[in-house]
Amino acid sequence: METPESMQQLEDLFHEAAGLGPQERADFMARVRDSNPALAVAVESLISAHERPDSLIDSPACEAAAELIADTQPALVAGQVVGHYQIVTPLGKGGMGEVYLASDTKLDRKVALKLLPAEFTNHKDLLRRFIQEAKAASSLNHPNIITIHEIGQTDGVHFIATEFIDGQTLKRRMTRARLKFADVLDVSIQVASALQAAHAAGLVHRDIKPENIMLRPDGYVKVLDFGLAKLTEKSSQSKASASEVDTMVRGHTKPGTVLGTVDYMSPEQARGKVLDQRTDVFSLGIVLYEMAAGRMPFAAATSVDTLVSILEKEPPPLDEYAPEVPAEFQRIISKALRKDREERYQTIKDLLIDLKTLKEELSFAQKLERSRPPRSSAGLSIKRAATEAPTTIQTRVVAATADPSALRSVRPNRRLVPVALVGLVLAGLAIVGAVLWQRGASRPAATMPATAVQRTVSYWMTVQKYRDGKAYQDPFRLRDDINFERDYRIRLNITSSQSGRLYLLNEGPAGADQTPTFNVLFPSETANNGSALLRENQQIQIPQQSWFQFDEQQGTEKIWVVWAEKDVPEMDAIKGFANAKDRGVISSPGLRTAVNEFLKAHSSSSPSVERDQDKKETIVKANSGILVHVIKLEHH
Amino acid sequence: MKESVKRPDQSITQLLVKWGSGDKAALDELIPLVYDELRKLAASYLRRKAGPHTIQATALVHEAYVRLADQSSISMENRAQFYGLAAKVMRDILVDHARKRLAAKRGGDQLRLSLTEAERFGHKPEVELVALDDALKVLAATNPQHSRVTELRFFGGLTIEETAQVMSLSHATTERYWSFARAWLRRELAA
């Protein structure tokens, strides 16, 4: 058992050893071992733990917090029986209670079983009305509306058994990656068709949102939960379940306030008015906007702010986020999102007609485009998913410069990521507005005078797939483009054949002074002991133990690589910010400007860039003693 | 319209001031407020999990602080107090949940699992969190300062500077404590 004294001794030795270089440390430890072998073992184990930041303690607790707190235990477990249904596994928890995959023991088929929470079923009146609606919904026979098998009750538990859809919700799909515009249109049309059928039968959905839209792998879209919203609306005064509390208006639950997310509400719904089918038009408009733009039109920091937005604000123009989307689609969305329902599409059918017309026009334009002679191949490159990519592999043609009116419809391929820009040389290309992808291999190395000493820096990206916060499969080297799913993580590996100084900076958005912000990635407190000195052939891995993750679903991440033979004062100064306190952010405006000038000045003397496809690495070469290169990670 | 979004900032600030001047009862009122806020933040954090760049993880307590306390009328001292408190509450919340979940999963006891068994953080945070909490208690027996620094840094998400402020320590000492505590805990967690 340790005492404060023995711990003190351990701590002193630990700090002393940690502060030494490898050789001195070995000598020092040898001396400790001579006088106290047990203590030496303890110090060594601490030193090795010190240099191996890979445990819980190295990530902020809030990550664990979220997972723990938001998680709730399902009420039923596999094998349990509800009526003639046997629970197979929980599928998830919706606003309206838990959903399970179950097997129908009578008909021997899979069903989705939704249990209604007691607080919703205690009201006899409500329940009757709900059953009425569910029955009406079950009478709808439409390929885009989920089939309701049974509405029943057993042992006081009310349940709905529906067709089991082996797919994912639109919500989940959207968090993975942006949808291609062709898919946006396709999903829109299917949802609108479902709503049209429901409206024709006098049924208003009231709760159209991405969680209620299921996408099947075969392309079918199914709309869920018809009529359920009504139950929620009227029973809002009863106690909300834990998962609903945080989507409620924070601390302002007034009678009549609707539980559940407010993000997809229509203005009339937000005002608690009597609803008609036009509320679905508005909510669908929000979903369309979100699919196309990759963000919600009215979402704000709090539910109250969101409601204010819905009631009063115009959403940002769609082309701010999705310039590839045709103007007509923007017009359709604007018309669906009119605050005054009298000005909106009066029926979902009108909206549907406009969507279908647009689809036809686009496919016509596309055919036209295909029949044209090919353009200069410089503007086109085939994006192919690497073999490691998951099933949503995309093979498409990316057009860089072309007649926008004809090509807008062809461009939706932006979405899945083409990550890693292979060997993009900053100077010329950065100015080109359209995304111009350049294959590293196709770019021949600039010829170098035979006498010049060539400095080379090689780098490669490692990708770790993550799913639901968990790493899966082995990390692999990025070859060229992959479908970069949102929670994939990356790491940069870099080495140079000469010894020198290495600095890595992550460029952020420009501040008010038009100068970009910079984040020091290397050197850092943990990598290379804070030193910029890189021995020849030493390999650096950034981040050392964890992974980078994109914080935006869309955009370009620029990582500047600066390698220098000799000290560069501007770059040397950045080390002052490479610590946890500053989080690597260069906060001094003067230094920021100096760094920016330096990068600009040196990147114009473009080094040559080669791509070694076999080794999956990029080699940057230069003749001068300073080599500046920007790695761009395009993330769609 | 904005007025309707009134936060309970007044009361929090007053409670912090009261607590700071030795009113222990104020703490009992504070904790549930902080707890509630952190819980909500954690849940919303999960929903926008798309978010955080690994380079800039958001500290929940900062967010809680910004939301709860009236920035203009609160002193640095109160702020430090709040962070200290929030870190403690955060630890309680997390470890409590972790223990409950573990207990629900299996008979209850035997919480210690090795890192390899628990695989990596993210897989079974509850296992590691409980192990960490246990290890912190062991550390606190001999090194209460180190344990407190860890609580502030890890559970509170505070920077070295902020931790130094809350603990009234120098920057260098705080860093020293943290680096030792971290190495010690890593070793314990991996053991």
Question: What is the structure about, briefly put?
Answer:
Chain A has 636 residues and is of the alpha+beta class. Chain A has 19 helices and 22 strands. In chain A, helix 2 (22-35) packs antiparallel against helix 3, helix 6 (124-139) packs antiparallel against helix 9 (228-234) and helix 12 packs antiparallel against helix 14 (327-336).
Structural notes for this entry:
- The complex is a heterodimer of chains A (636) and B (191).
- Chain A is of the alpha+beta class.
- Chain A has four domains: 1-48; 81-163, 2-Layer Sandwich (Phosphorylase Kinase, domain 1), CATH 3.30.200.20; 168-362, Transferase(Phosphotransferase), domain 1 (Orthogonal Bundle), CATH 1.10.510; 426-635, no CATH class.
- Helices cover 32% and strands 22% of the residues of chain A.
- In chain A, the strands form five sheets. Chain A has a six-stranded antiparallel beta sheet, with helices on one face.
- In chain A, strand 1 (81-82) and strand 2 (85-94) form a beta hairpin.
- The longest helix of chain A has 24 residues, at 348-371.
- Chain A starts with a helix and ends with a strand.
- Mean pLDDT of chain A is 73; it is low at 69-74, 232-259 and 374-451.
- Chain B has helices at 9-20, 24-47, 60-68, 76-105, 115-118, 125-142, 144-155, 160-167, 171-190.
- The longest helix of chain B has 30 residues, at 76-105.
- In chain B, helix 4 (76-105) crosses helix 6 (125-142) and helix 7 (144-155) packs across helix 8 (160-167).
- Chain B has one domain.
- Chain B is globular.
- Chain B has 191 residues and is an all-alpha fold.
- Residues 1-10, 47-58 and 106-123 of chain B have low confidence and may be disordered.
- The chains are: A alpha+beta (636), B mainly alpha (191).
- At the A-B interface, helix 1, helix 3, helix 4 and helix 13 of A face helix 2, helix 4, helix 6, helix 7 and helix 9 of B.
